[in-house]
What we know:
Layout: E1 2-6, H1 13-22, E2 26-31, E3 44-47, H2 53-59, E4 63-68, H3 76-89, E5 94-98, H4 110-124, E6 128-134, H5 145-151, E7 153-154, H6 168-184, E8 192-196, H7 204-215, E9 220-221, H8 226-233, H9 239-255, H10 263-271, H11 278-287
Parallel strand pairs: 1-2, 1-4, 2-3, 4-5, 5-6, 6-8, 7-9
Domain NmrA-like: 2-250
InterPro entries: Ergot_Alk_Oxidoreductase, NAD(P)-bd_dom_sf, NmrA-like
Amino acid sequence: MTILVIGPTGRVGRHVVEQLVARDASVRVLTRDPAKAAFPTGVDVAKGDLLDIDSLRAAFVGVRTLFLLNAVTGDEFTQAIVALNVAREAGVDRVVYLSVFDADRAVNVPHFAVKSGAERMLEAMNFGATILRPTYFIDNEAMVKDVILQHGVYPMPIGGKGVAMVDARDIAEVAAIELIRRDRAPEKLPIETINVVGPETLTGEDVAAIWSDVLGRPVAYGGDDPSGFEQNMATFMPRWMAYEMRLMAERYVSDGMIPEAGDRERLASLLGRPLHDYRETAVRLASA
Length: 288
């Protein structure tokens, strides 16, 4: 049977497709513009989006298992719930859903609240699902690379509690492993939740120190005030989204993203290798 991948084909989605193909899975991807798609040979590319019900229904034909990743948009909740309803209508009850770390606690952050609602639907509607709850993506640092390299400041207000930043490649590989496990199981498996974290819990000062070491010159931490972060984000994204990013940053400062006991060991066992660390990305971005 086919595994349907729904979601932006960026940091995580593309890696998920590649990991599935490497495991000899039959893969279909739903995308708005197949002409721009550049997936491995053999991937079935379907045109459509989550608010086009006809194309969504067509994409589910012959599918047993779903990977669902919703982009942060103003209608994210509608998209998530519609996708799960159409999946259920099509008889698909095996799902890997990309949520977010502490989705049920940080309910004032819109996209955290959305994902908490989708998690509740998965449980209430009796899906067999793996809910992945990743922390802050290390890959996001590409957005602030120029500030770090040109101004010697690490600008993300992640605070002093610590954030266990995770590499998108690790998220995607865990997702693929779980998709294959559920797809090939003789029957629907119970719901499981996996915190997908990185190997280190880093503060803002810790990250600045890593960059200082990688670059061989001082890099300062910009501080814990998310208001400046909101203003910077608003220069290249909608104001509502910049405000949402501020709310998320406030959670980093107040609570951090700190793994539970056994989270890292579970991931390393699942992957059969160590997790990618922050320094690896810093070295790559510094040399790009």
